[in-house]
Amino acid sequence: MPLSAAPEPKRRFVPSKWEKQKVMKIVRAIRQGRIVPNKPKTLDDRPQFYSIWETAASDHPAPAPAPKPRLPTNAESYNPPEEYLPTEEERKEWEEQDREDRERDFLPQKHSALRLVPAYPEFIKNRFDRLLDLYLAPRIQRRRLNIDPDSLIPTLPSPQSLRPFPTYLSLYQHHHTSRARCLSISPDDEWVVSGDENGVVSLWEVITGHEAARWSFEQRIGSITWCPRKDVSYFVVGLEEEIIFLSPPFVTGSVSSATKTLFDLEAAGSGGIQAVGSSSASSASTVSWTMTHRGTKSASSTIQGSAAIIHDVLQCVRLPRGSGRVAQLSFHRKGDYLSSLSVAGSGTGQSSVWIHQVSKQHSQAPFKNVKGTVQKSMFHPIKPHFFVATQRYVRVYDLAAQQLLKTYLTGIKWISSLDIHPSGDHFIVGGYDKKLCWFDLELSDKPYKVLRYHTRAIRALAFHPTFPLFVSCADDGSIQVFHARVYNDLMSDPLIVPLKILRGKTATTTKANSQGGGGLSVVGVHQVVDGLGILDIQWCHSRPWLVSAGADGTVAVWCP
Predict the structure, then answer these.
(1) Which of 73, 197, 297, 304 has a 20 to 30 A CA-CA distance from 419?
(2) Neighbour order of strands in the sheet with 376-379
(3) CA torsion 400→402→404→410, rounded to 10°?
(4) Counting beta carbons within 10 angstroms of the beta carbon of residue 180, is it exposed (0 to 12), middle (13 to 18) or buried (19 or more)?
(5) Tens digits of per-residue pLDDT, 428-438?
(6) Alpha-carbon distances of 558 from 38, 133, 207, 543, 549, rounded to whole Å
């Protein structure tokens, strides 16, 4: 501002009324107690700095005592004995070493009097290291638990006490130049039927491995299952948009007549379809039950006359066009209802589930829209429930009430297999991410136990119908056999014990020939071919025998 000689204005000598109002406002707040002036400090106030080792927190146990500093030795004396004094070589070696590698932080020195001792140059650094020791020292004194490591391992029974279970390769047979994709065992445990990707269905004898019959189709085989009824004898083959009912050629007597009567159109009435939620007239053309089939080419000469094959076809179910290959077939325990799962494309397309009633030649679609691609579907062994496994979830439906009961979270990235315990209270799920999950239906919607024993993708799982056993097979070419005992007591957890790892890389076995004989040979069974190992596995119903089908075209029987 420029200098001015003007007289001062009067307002600079008169008290400001605005400042007076501000001061009175503060005075009124102090009188009303809204503003409390600072109290004077007393001697009882807590100091600003205190020792963390002396004051214990109220919610913590008493602190551990501070670590004590190391006591001085003779080498730290101002007048140490001669043997503690370093030589010139030791002094030079000490100076060349790194600070972390030195045995001492100082070199002993000799002084004739205490007044001649100079100031210690490392004093500040030693004090800083001491403070670090106090700062990083544990505040709580923990007790060391003396626990035997062996006591933490659960006590499992010896596998020898859990016999019988499969332990060795008994016999094997080969499919010709193709992968053995699926198999199924007859209820009397006498026959096993297998299918490959070339469309060949072979009927083997379980005990000898003799191939008794062979059927050839133009499409590759997707799934095979045998009817669980013992009064009739037939098996079902899943093809591309088609399901074929076949009868074994050696069935005679009352079983043969009962089987033919079951599929007699005049006795059963005309076939048809009914989809849930839609009229039968609008959907009658989608699925048809006929006596003719597409694609049967020839039969093996082991059957008397090729014309016998025509009579072996009992029924043919044609699925809607575009439904794809029948990837799974599953019978109800009574043998009258059959569920089929068709997947279009290479396994990632649209999937469709159908339930077929054999006695009435009737088909129905239980779901209009299924969330996700269905991987597996099965009937509950006791209750009218239906299990549907999608890519990551397993859903349980009540067929009688037509409603969803529960959804189980598997934690598997891609489900590959599913099987239900004969008691109906447990089920297992396998995935392509090498995990096997055991579920308790009454416990939780999350796995009770997760097993990781395979090194590659799991392909199939199977509970034994009568013995407390279950198995899993994978693309690593191995079969894992487990003991699985389920107790009637709801308070007892299932006992799961790994028993045996079956591998068939090289084995000396009995190979059956076409004449029914055999001989010893060293072969490779269930070799990993193109990244695929064992593709399917089934138990015999009344014996602890195991039958497996591999990507190398072998069908093997494993016995105790």
Answers:
(1) 197
(2) 376-379, 385-389, 393-398, 403-409
(3) 70
(4) buried
(5) 999 999 999 99
(6) 91, 65, 11, 11, 11
